[in-house]
Amino acid sequence: MEIGSKIVSTAAIKMALTASRQEETRLKKELLENWEVKAVAVDYGGEFISSVGKIVERAVVAAKREGVIKDAHADEGAVAGAAREAIAQIMPKALGLNVGGKIGVARHKDHVSVAIFLGIGLLHLDEVAIGLGHRAVA
């Protein structure tokens, strides 16, 4: 089976949905061994509008730190662009509210995906949302 955007996007979503660091570690190892997909997840939270820049920054920093991407302008831009795309999908539900969740980043060769899973706080009526972005990097 060819490993492309579907597998990499699925990996990013799965990473964003992990419930614990142990589950993240187990899934990272499984993705690398079975699919040659490098992946990372990182938590975040706060007021949505003021968090947008932090979400993008956390995705890029975590991906570099864990070796998912190289310390190169094109790789950083791909993760940042995919993160912005994922944020744009979530924005209508989250504007003006507090959010908390996890960012998943996955890569295989030239495919990079970023998934954002978040809980949106509105009194005691929490909402959830997932955004997904993909970029190709040479």
From TrEMBL:
Belongs to the HutP family. It comes from the Bacteria. This is Hut operon positive regulatory protein. The lineage of its organism: Bacteria, Bacillati, Bacillota, Clostridia, Eubacteriales. It holds the Pfam family HutP. GO terms for molecular function: RNA binding. Antiterminator that binds to cis-acting regulatory sequences on the mRNA in the presence of histidine, thereby suppressing transcription termination and activating the hut operon for histidine utilization. It comes from Syntrophomonas wolfei subsp. wolfei (strain DSM 2245B / Goettingen). Keywords: Activator, RNA-binding, Transcription, Transcription regulation. The keyword Transcription applies. InterPro entries: Regulatory_HutP (IPR015111), Regulatory_HutP_sf (IPR036482). Homohexamer.
